[in-house]
Amino acid sequence: MTAKQVSVFLENRAGRLADVTTLLGDNGVNIRALSLADTADFGILRLIVNDPDKAVALLRKAGLTVRETEVVAAEVPDRPGGLAEILRLLSAEQINVEYMYAFVRSPAESAIMVFRFDDPGKALEVLQRKGVRTLPGKDLYLM
User: Fold this and answer.
1) Distance (Å, rounded) from C-alpha 55 to C-alpha 25?
2) Residue 40 per-residue DSSP state
3) Where along the chain do the CATH 3.30.70.260 domains lie?
């Protein structure tokens, strides 16, 4: 149960992020979660959206560099130490977290962590074996 993440490479200039979010919004693509990492010259916008295929097509048509990435979404207890517990499980199995970001849904019993792993299949197997609830893309896109 993995999900598709849409990554967009953007020049680091005023208005570029607004252009992307406007394009998606105007075409009915709802952003469920996002992360933005930047350098002096460019940024990488990582998105979980309700329709990844449509988002990719729209962004490519607009001339943007876009990539789809397989990520794992897992529920993490929304309390002190909740994330540390999950990360210890992964560390014990020598699974590397390349990056992650989170969002909280209401009511906030748990947070949803979006993980990019060096080995998503192995990470998914470990999380499920250890009783961590993971979410398939279809559920994540509609949250």
Assistant:
1) 10
2) S
3) 72-140
